[in-house]
Write a structure and sequence with these properties.
10 helices
Length: 259
């Protein structure tokens, strides 16, 4: 289970993140990764949509569907298979939309790790010495964590697909899918702070599981922002990292927690 108070606090941290960005003029840290995200995302959509059409064409040729439709000479059946092909392409596009975020988290891990550290340095009003060794260590951990979360999310989605065939239960599986995706996205954002405070991967997993609301709240806003074309795509990644850093810093100071 998770604490609703933690979820609410994680959501409110985005407001603090916006004020923090305005105060310290961090817009270049928003725009640079955001623009790169948009370029890669739109490029990916172009190729995924194009190749998904080729895949549907190959699939229909493999199953001799076209020949069967032509033999029947039914406009209704032809229309049905056109919709089926379109549905398959949209499903592939949605899968891309879901997993591209993890790909970008892997590619942007060095930047997000640095942004999280810079945020805390500004909050504490002190500089953390830069180390290439630590930088690469943080980068590799962020990559491993993103890959781990994407695999775990895949297993959960497969389970939800199976559950979706059960009457009544299947109606609410899309809602569960949203929460699962949001949790794992937030998990990756929170881990940047856990790493900087010397938590091992195992300790970080235990901490985030004990405070699922933090990851869930952070990931929910991140996920919803991604539905805002261009502007949301630009702002979401960096805002999520800064919001998670601010939230965990507040939690550490308020409760005197030892990491």
């Amino acid at each position: 289970m998770f604490s609703f108070r933690e979820v609410l606090a994680a959501v409110q941290a985005y407001g603090k993140a916006h004020q923090f960005i305005m105060q310290h003029k961090l817009w270049k840290w928003i725009l640079i990764p955001g623009i790169v995200y948009c370029i890669l995302f739109m490029t990916g959509i172009y190729f995924v949509w194009g190749y998904s059409g080729d895949f549907v064409e190959y699939l229909f040729n493999l199953l001799p569907v076209k020949v069967w439709i032509q033999d029947l000479e039914s406009s209704w059946i032809s229309f049905f298979f056109i919709l089926l092909g379109l549905s398959i392409r949209i499903m592939i596009l949605l899968l891309y939309f879901s997993y591209y975020k993890y790909l970008f988290l892997v590619l942007g891990s060095p930047l997000f790790s640095y942004l999280s550290e810079k945020t805390e340095a500004l909050m504490d009003r002190k500089e953390y010495p830069f180390s290439w060794q630590q930088f690469f260590k943080d980068m590799m951990r962020g990559i491993r964590m993103s890959i781990r979360n994407s695999l775990n999310q895949t297993l959960c989605v497969i389970a939800l697909i199976v559950l979706s065939f059960i009457p009544i239960v299947g109606w609410i599986t899309p809602l569960f899918a949203f929460f699962i995706e949001a949790y794992f996205y937030g998990f990756s954002m929170v881990d940047y702070s856990c790493e900087r405070h010397k938590l091992s991967t195992k300790q970080s997993i235990q901490f985030i599981r004990a405070h699922r609301g933090i990851a869930l709240g952070n990931g929910m806003v991140f996920y919803l922002m991604m539905f805002i074309p261009v502007l949301g795509w630009i702002m979401a990644p960096s805002y999520a990292v800064i919001a998670a850093t601010i939230h965990l810093s507040d939690k550490r100071l308020l409760h005197g927690a030892t990491w």
